[in-house]
UniProtKB/TrEMBL annotation, chains A, B:
The gene is aroB. Keywords: Amino-acid biosynthesis, Aromatic amino acid biosynthesis, Cobalt, Lyase, Metal-binding, NAD. InterPro entries: Dehydroquinate_synthase, DHQ_synth_fam, DHQS/DOIS_N, DHQS_C. The keyword Amino-acid biosynthesis applies. GO terms for biological process: amino acid biosynthetic process; aromatic amino acid family biosynthetic process. It holds the Pfam family DHQS_C. Residues 84-196 form the 3-dehydroquinate synthase N-terminal domain. It comes from the Bacteria. One of its GO terms (molecular function) is 3-dehydroquinate synthase activity. The lineage of its organism: Bacteria, Pseudomonadati, Bacteroidota, Cytophagia, Cytophagales. Its EC number is 4.2.3.4. The keyword Disulfide bond does not apply. This is 3-dehydroquinate synthase.
Amino acid sequence: MDHLHQTFSVRFTYSVYFTEQLFDSTNSLLADFFSQQATAETRKKLLVVIDSGVVSTHPNLPATITSYFSQHADSVELVTDFLILPGGEIAKNDPDSVEKIVDAVDRHGIDRHSYVAAIGGGSVLDLVGYAAAISHRGIRHIRIPTTVLSQNDSGVGVKNGVNYKGKKNFLGTFVPPVAVFNDSQFLTTLDERDWRAGVSEAVKVALIKDKAFFEWIEQNAEALAARDMTAMQYLVHRCADMHLQHIAGGDPFEMGSSRPLDFGHWSAHKLEQLTNFEIRHGEAVAIGIAMDSLYSQQLGWLSETDTNRILTTLRTLGFVLYQPMLDADNSAGVLKGLSEFREHLGGQLTIMLLKDLGRGVEVHEMDADRIRQAIATLREQESLTLQPALSGQ
Amino acid sequence: MDHLHQTFSVRFTYSVYFTEQLFDSTNSLLADFFSQQATAETRKKLLVVIDSGVVSTHPNLPATITSYFSQHADSVELVTDFLILPGGEIAKNDPDSVEKIVDAVDRHGIDRHSYVAAIGGGSVLDLVGYAAAISHRGIRHIRIPTTVLSQNDSGVGVKNGVNYKGKKNFLGTFVPPVAVFNDSQFLTTLDERDWRAGVSEAVKVALIKDKAFFEWIEQNAEALAARDMTAMQYLVHRCADMHLQHIAGGDPFEMGSSRPLDFGHWSAHKLEQLTNFEIRHGEAVAIGIAMDSLYSQQLGWLSETDTNRILTTLRTLGFVLYQPMLDADNSAGVLKGLSEFREHLGGQLTIMLLKDLGRGVEVHEMDADRIRQAIATLREQESLTLQPALSGQ
């Protein structure tokens, strides 16, 4: 058989920086990054896309960024025409969002050696990462995540994506950023729900990989709920580190049958959709973790004590572990999430469950009755939690 | 400075197969490929997109493919609802083309472990490769190029792309195919222009890398013009091999300042656009090669003898080396292609010229007067070539 065989490897490298007040004129981190990347022959530009939610809580941000680069003007050429886009899952449904970014790339002459930076939550990072990945076959992309969830999870990873005709992340690519800047100052202005929502990804990764980290979260759950920044900085750093290790140690672009660092996610994706994204990703993941922990207990894999430690930790963090749409038990309900998850993975269903705190194991089928039992337990516990409050009125 | 550093490599591997009558029931090459890729846990599907131009000359192709996979049904599950799309550069301007492919991926449940095969010329391969790259963050993509140009050049490479608001390949990615099948039988039905057009990429790569290959083309130019299939098969194989070697030996995804295997292309891209793609890519490249060879001669780098060998070889192959739009010498003319090429490369202009047959060298500027002189020479030579024919009427 006459053929030519081609093999090559492509090396990807990037850093995740932890800082405070990234755009303070005395913080040279970002300017230093651009200076180190500079080359004699080309003048590189920087296009900045900002989440409108971030601009609402930080109205001076565009001016601050402009001021920063006027003081560090030799590092990169800032495009002062900022692109401000709405965030949230709904924004990923709008085809115009990507087009606006691509048009800005075109209008400002951003080439393959220039940069597009995204400042915002996971949705804006996903949108901008995708637009950067497809423009000129890939523009250098910088992520400046502003939420707990994006700083410790999606923002440090290699995926991007947008929804297509309502299908979550139907369009997307695997392209690493050239750098990630995690500025903890952005976390101080998050509302309660967004502060909390990101913590569930830390619980998830701890439960499947690192018992000691779970116990740290358990011990610090009250501090985290009380918005202790030192605790949150540790959590974000540890979680980002584990996420990076998982990517590098595995199959970064998921070309084989390897799967992402998932636990409690199959139902979470569906629950988000069923509630029309009124429930946030992290809130849905907390419920998904609770469900799959109870399922693991039913299998005899997790003790009642350990299961309760998980549920108590999640509740101490402030999560509500039941949502009425869980009981939409028909062909369009949460159970349908199982078959959709199978399709998303491509072929075989693979779900992570727990054999112990810190020890995830994969299974290839789940029993609908056991899932319903886990949901029933959560419904019952939640009504008991609420009862005293109601009777006390 | 607090940071985490991430580094990983991703390995890409694929084969380029040379065959005849790929879909003949007795040719097991394709079925064997799918069987080797099969895994126990998943049933993989195959969606086939065909260039409408190919269907015109091979009206039985869909039926032949259906018949092939009914006889090799255990290798893969064929989606018998073929997607037939127009080819040519114009098709890459139409945003609906990508949407049609993505919708078919969705409709037929093609997941990341399934395949999308494209049968056609370079434009359809580019379109399908792009749609496959962005669907589900990348579906396995198979190329079955049907033109000389796509079999020896673009079809074996790692790029895809579509035009955006008239800008050539403004959207695209670097994603290798999982396999390429070059079926020489498709070449027999090409019209004269498409048969010839692909040869100019072989002349290009020979001139900058391999004098012996150029001399082979020179000696076989009449045979190639007379559609000698043995000569063409050798040319396609040698050219594909050099193209693969260039990719693997360099910077496959062009992340640094490395550039593609280009010569004679800066003007060719512009000339295609100026003629509204009436001139084909390979025809424009032949003119571009002639121009930049004459330019190299003006610099004293290439002898008059060698320059004439190049021009004579191109003319023996059947190329016309002048096009009136070359003289649209204003801000919208071919010279504008220089600045657009600079922008496309990102930053510094880099143009390949010739120091000798088989030896390309890069320069970072070109002189407008010398370019005009090269154009004038081509105009004059072409009028001399045409004169006897006209006076003989």
